[in-house]
Amino acid sequence: MPAITPALRPRVVVDADACVPAELRRALGIVCAPGEPAVVTEREAIRWLAPDAGPLPGSAIAGACAAVAEPGGAVIYVRTGDGYGSPDDAGGAAREAVEARGAAFHLLATGAALMAAGWAAVCAAEAIGAGAGAEAAVAAGRRAAAAAGAIAMLEHPELAGLVADRGRGVTTRVLVRIEGATLPLLAAVPRRETALAALRDRFAALVAAGGGAGALRVAVHHAGSAAAAGAMALWIERHLAPAQTVVAPLTRHAATRLGPGMVGLAWTWEPPPSDARGV
Question: At CA 64, angle to CA 7 and CA 86, rounded to 5?
Answer without folding.
Answer: 135
